[in-house]
Write a structure and sequence with these properties.
Distance between the termini: 39 Å
Order of helices and strands: HHEEHHHHHHHHH
Number of strands: 2
Shape: globular
Strand order of the largest sheet: 1-2
Strand content: under 5%
Length: 276
């Protein structure tokens, strides 16, 4: 997500318009209930693909159930529809994964509800959905083995994201795939770091904990900086102009928001225990 604390009002309006447009596209293409699966990840992808190609944009202002007071600006392009499809497909496979791992009945019900939409998405984007399913299957197998290899586990999610970031081939496909690959690895490791304490309390597998125990320790910050650094190197190689300020905000600042908040909370807890 974007770090809205350092964005201007105009920048926030543009960012929210893309997010709102994506939400509306999900509802239009896959039903209103599917809008609950909306994530910021696909907002970044829509911004990126729009900036690279600069397709025709449709804009408007309208109210919705989520924002009953006042109308919201929205913006859509052909990549908004693609982002909507990928958002729902990811939600479907994620729900299936949670069902396989924890026998979560709620997630199974969500997957069942999304199955017809996902079937249509597979017909439109067979390669993306194949890579998505294959990557999550490999990742699930590694997690069931309680793998201690962060390279192997994060690579699975990296390959998934690489497939999403290059939907139509072309000259920039290798660069887009490299950007998606390293960003996916960063997201996977960051999520594991942020979830480590909760997973430990509940006795759940966590790839960072497994790596830490197998190797006698783990310093997350240098690894995370390396992963996002590789992603930004690919990003800066792309000929982007439209919404470049928003894209850089997300990659250089927004992706660290939860990390910073977690570190601040940990510091406050530590200061509380050391006070006389």
């Amino acid at each position: 997500m974007a770090n809205q604390a350092i964005l201007s009002d105009e920048q926030i309006d543009r960012y929210r318009a893309v997010y709102c447009g994506l939400c509306r596209a999900i509802g239009r293409r896959h039903g209103q209930a599917a809008r609950l699966s909306l994530t910021y990840d696909m907002t970044f992808l829509v911004l990126l693909l729009d900036s690279l190609e600069e397709p025709d944009l449709a804009t408007g202002k309208k109210g919705c159930v989520a924002h009953p007071v006042g109308k919201q600006n929205w913006r859509q392009s052909k990549w908004t529809d693609y982002g909507a499809d990928m958002n729902v497909a990811l939600a479907y496979y994620n729900c299936l994964d949670d069902w396989d791992d924890d026998r979560n009945v709620v997630k199974y019900a969500c997957a069942t509800a999304l199955r017809p939409a996902c079937r249509n998405i597979r017909e439109r984007w067979p390669e993306q959905c194949r890579r998505m399913a294959d990557s999550l299957e490999r990742l699930g197998a590694l997690e069931r083995e309680r793998s201690a290899s962060l390279d192997d586990t994060s690579q699975c999610f990296g390959q998934l994201m690489a497939g999403l970031f290059a939907p139509q081939g072309g000259y920039w496909q290798p660069t887009l795939e490299r950007l998606g690959d390293w960003l996916g690895r960063f997201i996977y490791v960051m999520d594991a770091v942020l979830d480590e304490e909760a997973d430990r309390k509940k006795g759940r597998y966590n790839p960072v904990t497994a790596f830490r125990e197998a190797n006698g320790g783990f310093e997350p910050l240098p690894v995370l900086e390396m992963l996002i650094g590789e992603s930004t190197l690919a990003f800066e190689a792309l000929p982007l102009e439209q919404d470049l300020d928003l894209l850089r905000n997300i990659l250089y600042s927004g992706v660290w928001t939860q990390w910073v908040n977690t570190q601040k909370k940990a510091q406050k807890r530590q200061e509380g225990t050391t006070e006389p």
